[in-house]
Amino acid sequence: MKKISIVSGGSSGLGLAMSDLLLANNKNVIILGRDKNRLSDAVNMLNSKSHEAVAASFRCNIGDEEEIKALGRYIIKNQFVTEYLFNNAGRGLFSMAQNTTSAQIDAVFESNLKGLMLLTTEILRITPEEEELTIVNIMSTSALLGRAEESVYCAAKWGARGYTEALRTELKGKKRNIIAVYPGGMKSPFWNVIEHNRNISGFMEPADVAEKIIAAVLVKDNLVVTDLTIKRK
Known about the structure:
Blueprint lengths: L1 E7 L4 H12 L4 E5 L2 H12 L7 E5 L5 H13 L2 E8 L14 H25 L6 E6 L12 H20 L5 E8 L22 H13 L8 E4 L3
Parallel strand pairs: 1-2, 1-4, 2-3, 4-5, 5-6, 6-7
């Protein structure tokens, strides 16, 4: 069976930067996303470099259970086994609490919480118990404190944090490592699809954040990182 790393939200920003570093560390990668064209462009870019490992893509909405199950069938059919799962996909919302709508709640929770849970569930289900699996849940510093005009976003991220802690407790003693990552603001396409009045010029570069995450996740010694918060100086 061929070991793979799965990166949701892997066609741009932090997901793409992490995928590039995984390939550089000889890890085969499957990136997930909703846009087929963006996935194709990302895979072509990743594979254009002189890596021994290979990148592939799978188009799916991680908030759709049927599409996640299709991913599971694809992994089984190709005799892949997941070594690393990076739950990286997310969607922001900046709005006053009094203006919140049901549609906004559904959209934010689908990518930041429901999708994370569905993807994790499927990978846990199909990964043999004897194989070691590391699950990296990339959330936000908004999962650590409440912020004005981020009530829905914080709620989703706090939910993801609670799920991560419960998952870690449930899987203790098994060949399952759970790492929680809380990055601060980054310069990424995340900001291109939401209305905001933030000045992001001083935000972190995705490539720099990716280096911190991959270095912590791939380290091979007798110690393990369980929680990683990444902030600007």
